[in-house]
Amino acid sequence: MADRTLHGTGATPRSGVGTVVWYGRDISLPDPDDVKVDPEAEGRRFANAVDTAREELASEREATAERVGEDEAAVFDAHIQFLEDPTIEEAVETMIGEGQPAPNAVDAAFGEHIEQFEGMDGRMAERADDLRDVRDRLLRLLTDGERVDLGDLPDGSVVLAERLTPSDTAQLDPDRVAGFATVTGGRTSHASIFARSLALPAVVGVGEALEAIEDGTEVVIDGDSGEVLVAPDDTERAAAASDSGAAVVDASVETTDGRHVEVAANIGQPAELKPAVERGADGVGLYRTEFLFLDRETPPSEDEQYEAIRETLDTFPDGRVVVRTLDIGGDKQIPYLDQPDEENPFLGERGIRRSLGPDSDLFATQLRALLRAAADGAGDLAIMFPMVATVPELDAALDALDTAAADIEKSDAVDVEVGVMIETPSAAFMAGELAARVDFLSIGTNDLTQYVMAADRENERVGDLHDPSHPGVLRAIHQTVTAAHEEDAWVGMCGEMAGDPDLTELLVGLGLDELSMSAVTIPEVKTAVSDTEYSTASERADRAQLAATRSEVHTTLDT
Ligand code: PEP
Ligand code: MG
To answer: Is the CB of 445 under 6 A from ligand 1?
Structure first.
């Protein structure tokens, strides 16, 4: 390889060193020069694989329709349609006729269509995932391929892949895996969010150059600089291996002048509990429950949701677990939920809007699961609603919670706090009225910043504007905290801003009572809270939010 250093986007500010294991390459295609192809036999093999795939899909469809419902089974219809698509079938047959082995023809014909879909927007782009699933199913049948078991990798492995789904990432054991790098993906892709929760060194979006690295090569994954370093020397290896971040602080923390600040973890599924505990989280400040709904064909049942939340409550017997109800929409698309095609999905049917509308049944099921878990689990459950913009929305969500409480057996044993996420400018302006109805608010700066600054959180071109340290965002935070405290509600923050140790003093000074973040920076933030003097921080924060520009904000913080 010409250049030893490949550049991508750092997903976790940690480094690791290890040996490359490729994931997703284990379906190896035959070299057409090495095999003598009999087009007729290959054509039959292809036709048989299509038949078997159709049978598999039909029986998976039937089981799903029976277990869950017709709507949820519809995803298999889409797969069957792609399997039987005459254009793709014809392309495969033509290539086989020209002397290609069947797996190579399938790979090439599907590859062309996948590329076309990838170039489109929104829901069309997601069809690329359906096509990949169908292609992989056929390739597995044609090659007897089996995948590397991500849950059972040798110690010190570095996983390289085209992309990793949340469930792929969740299987990685941070005690054994040294890191991962992917060809595609950005900082806010699900794989990145999970990597941060698992405190796993990770670089995403490296591009096709990654593919030149062979299995068994030693590499450094530098999630801070976003680099993958091939064949490190002794110094580089030692530097990467010794990077374990700040010392873990297990106890809860307070400022030098005695103000307690809760430091909690953001999680999305049970696999993230262990790293949260290991990095000293006081509890969970944001459980993104929609991740329990991803990467499956049907929604999780009430009991499955109960188990996931119960496990979390039992993991933090003396702590608080804040569970956010389903936040679907925007960039979070769930194929089996029949989401509308929207011009502006981030300004469309998201979060509570869906829970009070088309997903009201799922919402009721989820609320029952949460309340049952609260009745039985050890820790204290808090429930919060995402994307609230108006007081009537909150009132309707509270009514749904009352109905769910009346529907469960042990309602007398349930004592939960209830809160609202502050992610829209309207919610920040209405913080007082909202706080008067609940126990707490939690500021979601990822969305609040995008809506206050009118800067898409996923669009690198406006990345400079999507920065919560702009005074416009700080004023929204200040207004929210002040209004909520007047109503005796506590205020947390669970957007990415909360996990930046350089901003801890500012946030403590703004009056935040809780900071919740991906597990990786919990030790740094706890240390920063302990080093802060609240009286000084508060005076600085007051000045910072009155600044005219972001650079003035930073000057105020540095002096
Ligand atoms: C946020 O918007 O800040 C937040 C925590 O929610 P999510 O990132 O899941 O949209
Ligand atoms: Mg959000």
So the answer is: yes
